[in-house]
Design goal:
The complex is a heterodimer of chains A (238) and B (484). Chain A is an alpha/beta fold. Chain A contains 13 helices and eight strands. Helices cover 54% and strands 11% of the residues of chain A. Chain B is elongated, with a radius of gyration of 26 Å. Classes of the chains: A alpha/beta (238), B alpha/beta (484). Chains A and B meet through helix 1, helix 2, helix 3, helix 4 and helix 8 of A and helix 1, helix 14, helix 16, helix 17 and helix 19 of B.
Chain lengths: 238, 484
Amino acid sequence: MSIAIFVTCVGDALFPEVGVGAVRLLEAAGCTVEFPRAQTCCGQPALNAGEPEAAVRLARHFVDVFEGYDAIVAPSGSCAAMVRHWYPQILEGRWQGRAESVAARTYELTEYLVEKLGRTDLGARVDARVTVHDACHMLRTLGVKGAPRRLLGAAGAEIVEMVEPETCCGFGGTFAAAHGEISVPLADDKLTHAAATEADYLVSCDQSCLMHLEGRRRRTGLGPRPVHLATLLAEGLR
Amino acid sequence: MTHGLVTPGRTLKERATRAVADAELQRALHNLDVRLFTARDVEDNHRALKDKAAAIRRETLADLDGWLDKLEATLVSLGVTVHRCATPDDARRVVLDLARREGVHRVVKSKSMATEEIDLSDALEANGMESIETDLGEYIVQLAGERPSHIITPVIHKTLPQIADVLSREAGAPLAVDREVLTEWTREKLREKFVAADMGITGANFVAADTGTIVVVTNEGNGRFCTSLPRIHVCVMPIEKVVPRFADLATLLPLLTMSATGQRLSNYVSMVTGPRRPDEVDGPEHLHVIFLDHNRRDLVGTRYESMLACIRCGACLNVCPVYRKIGGHAYDSVYSGPMGKVLTPLLSAGADGRDLPGASSLCGACAEACPVQIPLADLLVRLREDLRSPGPVVAGVPSVAAKRTRPRVRRLGFGTWAAAWASPAGYRASMGAARLGRRILGRDGWAHRAPGLRGWTAGRDLPLPAARSFRDRWDARREGDDQW
């Protein structure tokens, strides 16, 4: 069983601790993880900007890099959703079958750990109060909601649900920069709801949403510290 | 730019900026939150109903022309006059000609987005006729000289004190800021209008092809007055409102009302089957039905066909984080929210609302809430592609759209980026360049300002590349660093 980690471009360049955490958690679950060095980006920014040709180019590269593995695991619900939902639609001809095959083997991290491997207790300990933001594509495209909560619960974290955990944080990729006038107030709503839970951490499984929330929090000081589930759980290993 | 918007502006961005800063509007929009959760709770228990409804809508669209022909034949056999109108202009002309021919002076209207689409009220008034909206919310919006901001709750953008102001001005005396008082006053006022009207105009929620029955759903009974008192009834029906069988209403009606307001059935469901018959005591002498196309038929068989399944319940507006933040007027279009973002550029063949599809975080709450399973977020992604070059939307023909010239900077930007990142060496080089930025801009890994990225940094700090990328750390581990 060969397992590849797709750390995502954001994870590689900006937040390497997320990828490191994800690898540690997978290894704690008994997996042997490989990091295909040729990996770059899933192409979602291009597709969402209305530039499918550029997205297709990166999607083909992704398929080339990852199709030899039994499972491809990403610490990002959104990037995993891009592969699973969109690749079979945007890759055509001789690429389509390969895209479908890769899509079927691509998982979000907590989904893979809990739903595929059936593991929740990885030996990590989190003595903190946490609230969980359901990142949109993870929730609605992949249908994953329980997995992060079960992992946190098994680590001993106290989970306090905020108001509207399923409402978008306002990130949305290029939307965040193009429509800051809408995106920023949505971050404020999310941080306000999270603050009301008096949690120590605002946990999610998409670092891009968290970067938007943390970027805002650094201006307003409002809300608990946004942190990726992989980072938080891996810190609590052993 | 349309008149009658509480948050005017040239672009969606300008209007949204104004909307977010409007404290009174924000207070009013908060009322939507309550509705949202009641509607969703009821709806969650009806997955089977949704599947059935989606199947009916698919069946209809698979042979839209066939069902329309059948409907027309049924309507004609009932004594109804059918007008097929390709454009809003045609539809307006038909109604105006009819009104002039019949010597109509006073018109009462039941709530209808189709008549908003063809700007019918303004056309009637411009031709010397009185045209009164009789849905309470629409009436308030009309008195205020504004446009509806929500397809189901048109005056959701106003608070109760604002509404009291509008009605007090019409009453010529201050009315109490009290729902019952305001409703009672309006009710009496509208009764006079119903009795005096020569023509009633409605839209249609559904029209059954086998029986020719026009269905109008309201909570106030105003639809029934409009269809039974005036001697002429005109129904403006966008062509996708046809349903194959009367029996399909058993599925579609409860789904519509549950998705719209959380009700199992609305207070009134008016069903009109033909004009008044000799043995009947009420109903119109003449019934006219307008089949409004307005570029809808062009969508059949394209990647946007599913949009024609929309039953106008408003659920996607209620759950949309963007709509809830900026309200309907920020869209400056007849239809707002997610369905409006898709429909506006399509119905206008790309003339209007070109900046709407971009104003979405693509969170997918709309598609999840949609009772007829329209993949709204996916359609927004597709529209971003089809709208990138000027000119009409080439619905469902991406290869043609792709070949057209589009803003060169953007094309070059994404093309170069994709070319670089489709190779490990190009990716490494650009990452190295990005890391230079870290040394220039940030101390603790976050920048307050960054050239060219004001859109982000105006409200948020920007993360900078880490001192060591994941790749670096993975290499360190392979070289024996346990801490990596």
